[in-house]
Amino acid sequence: MFSTAARALASRSLPRAPSILPPSRSMLTVSRLSPSVAELTLDKAPANTLSLEMALAFSAAVSEIEADPSVTALLLRSSSTKIFSAGLDISEMSGPEPARLADFWRAIQGTYLSLYSSRLATVACIEGHAPAGGCLLSLMADYRIMTGGGPRIGLNETALGIAAPYWLKDMFVETVGRRNAELALLKGTLFTGEEALAVGLVDEVLPLEEVYPRAKEEVLKLARIPAKGRAETKRLLRGAAVDELLAGREADVAWFTEFVLEEGTQKGIKAYLDSLKKK
Ligand SMILES: CCCCCCCC/C=C/C=C/CC(=O)SCCNC(=O)CCNC(=O)[C@H](O)C(C)(C)COP(=O)(O)OP(=O)(O)OC[C@H]1O[C@@H](n2cnc3c(N)ncnc32)[C@H](O)[C@@H]1OP(=O)(O)O
Description:
Belongs to the enoyl-CoA hydratase/isomerase family. It is a single chain. By secondary structure, the chain is α/β, with parallel strands linked by helices. The chain has one domain (4-278): 2-enoyl-CoA Hydratase, Chain A, domain 1 (Alpha-Beta Complex), CATH 3.90.226. The chain is built from 11 helices and 9 strands. The protein has helices spanning 4-12, 52-67, 98-116, 133-139, 166-176, 178-187, 193-199, 208-222, 227-247, 249-261, 263-278, and strands at residues 28-34, 37-42, 73-78, 121-126, 130-131, 143-147, 152-154, 191-192, 204-206. The protein has a 6-stranded mixed sheet, sandwiched between helices. Strands 5-7-8 form a 3-stranded mixed sheet. Helix 3 links the parallel strand 3 and strand 4 (121-126). Helix 3 crosses helix 10 and helix 5 (166-176) packs across helix 6. The chain is globular. 44% of the residues are buried.
């Protein structure tokens, strides 16, 4: 677990405006795989996109799971075997109301701060597609297991005419290495499971029917690693990145909102959203 001060700062910066709906749990389910292992299932049809409400619900669920000292590990999965998460809800960025857009980005930052800095051992069970923000969710976990063959994973922001924020880019670079990250980010590459394994973006690739059983096996194994040593090791590995975002959180919100509100970006976002709907 990261410093109390850092956590307090993180939660104080989350949206509190009365216009924001309270986190809805209908988009997520939390269950237990064992007394010490929780399972968090994304359950927002059709594509588990990260809207403002979904992002708030996600962080709240992670915080609630963490607050139970008997829980030492978390499995993250989707209720759909076709889509893990299609990433940010693009409609949040199309013709947005500026205050909501800023709250949306704070909530997206909050998903990162909650899971990447979690004291829990975390495994992502990626049975379906995980583009952009879907890849972000999985990168925040400690271990990733993905289906081979069909589904794609990666950061395709460049192909959409936008850029991944620095904290997401940094997590990607840390995971796949500088050169692999440059090649993938500049092209907006979406990898198959096998390609993702080759660059180190995921840790295992299996046929669909074996992904969830194996993810359960792994998370139950990780849950047995002494919790204190693991939490401190994670803090040593990730603390600087988390602290950097905490210190520059509002500057990052300003960067995001300015870029998204630009006329050219708006045209691109609208065209992309229309193309998704026409598919
Ligand atoms: C100087 C530079 C500054 C830069 C600052 C800008 C910073 C911006 C940073 C942002 C980072 C952004 C990261 C993101 O996450 S952006 C979102 C990227 N996501 C995608 O590109 C994925 C889009 N979706 C798909 O490719 C497919 O849906 C797929 C996941 C492959 C699944 O395909 P399929 O099974 O065929 O399902 P459908 O395409 O039919 O989708 C079902 C319905 O869901 C809607 N949908 C899908 N994805 C999204 C989305 N991301 N947002 C909103 N809605 C989405 C889709 O339209 C379908 O809806 P409907 O049933 O009504 O037709």
